[in-house]
Every structure is written in C-alpha cells, then in structure tokens.
Specification:
Layout: E1 2-6, H1 13-17, E2 22-25, H2 56-61, E3 65-71, H3 79-87, E4 92-99, E5 102-107, E6 112-120, H4 125-141, E7 144-152, H5 155-161
Parallel strand pairs: 1-2, 1-3, 3-6, 6-7
Antiparallel strand pairs: 4-5
C-alpha cells in the first residue's frame, strides 16, 4: 500500500489521492501528540484523541511505501508533517531489539519497502545533507528497507515527484 503524507494544502488532495492508496493531509487541524504513550501500551496503534489522526499509526504501519511531501524547515520536516509523524509512534512497540547492529523499537507491523521524502522550497546544501541523514535514520527506525530524498523548487514540482 502506498501512503502519501503531505503539507501542500487542500488544492493538491485530489491529484495526490489518484497517485496512492491512502493520503494524509498534514494541515494542522488536529491535536499534537500528548506524549502519553497510550498508543504503545493501552490502545496499541490507536491514539486516545478522537480526531482524524486517531488511526494514523495503523495507516503508516501498513504502508509498503510512505511518501512524505514537506516544506523545508531548516533541514527538517514542516511542523505539520512532524506532528503527524509524532502521532505515529505506535507503529512500533515499547520493546527493543537489535536491527543492523543497533538498538531500535520492535516493529508492530513488520518491514516496509520505501521511505521517500520530497522536500520543496529553498534548501541549502547543508540542509540537504541534514534531510538525507534524517530520512535515512527515520527509515531505519520505522523498519523501511530504503530511503530516498528528492528536492523540488515549488509545491507543484513536489506534487509531480510523488
């Protein structure tokens, strides 16, 4: 299943929905993660907050390919995208294991294929390096076999790369 997470705005929803199985619009119209860890322990892979991100752990956890389209924010995800990723912590469990010689949380949904990040806006060379490293580490933590980062000058160009 291909899932697209984006902060491009509602005008891109229709075009992106045609390119994936499920789409998550990071529009900021939901509560931020409260850090309660209920999605880890009390209600596995389900947030206690009753908004449209309540099932985001399951949606991202079942994705073979996750495409993240985000505006550059100093070499990191936009606040709206980061908020969605924070709310998806329940894709793993509180237990730890070794993967690739490193300690990581046990995956609730198993391995995935591709963690792809499409960054738009002005991006310096240092920010590009930071994004590549961030994407690679996020992919490992969430059980994705590979990561890819693409850079676009505009939101429309980013949508085309999805």
């Amino acid at each position: 299943m291909k899932v697209i997470l984006h902060d491009l705005g509602r005008q891109y929803d229709g075009m992106l929905e045609a390119r994936c199985d499920r789409m998550i619009a990071a529009d900021g119209k939901y509560a931020p993660c409260q850090g309660c860890f209920g999605c880890w322990t009390k209600h596995p892979a389900e947030c206690f907050m009753k908004d449209r991100l309540q099932q985001v752990c399951r949606l991202i956890g079942q994705a073979d390919e996750l495409v993240i389209i985000t505006k550059n924010l100093y070499g990191g995800y936009s606040a709206e995208v980061k908020n969605v990723l924070d709310r998806s912590i329940g894709t793993s469990t509180p237990f730890s294991t070794y993967r690739g010689g490193q300690m990581h949380h046990t995956l609730r949904y198993g391995k995935h294929n591709l963690w792809k990040v499409i960054v738009y806006g002005d991006v310096s060379d240092a920010e590009k390096d930071t994004f590549r490293y961030l994407s690679e580490r996020n992919a490992v933590n969430d059980g994705f076999e590979r990561s890819e980062v693409l850079f676009a000058g505009s939101p429309a160009e980013a949508e085309e790369l999805a």
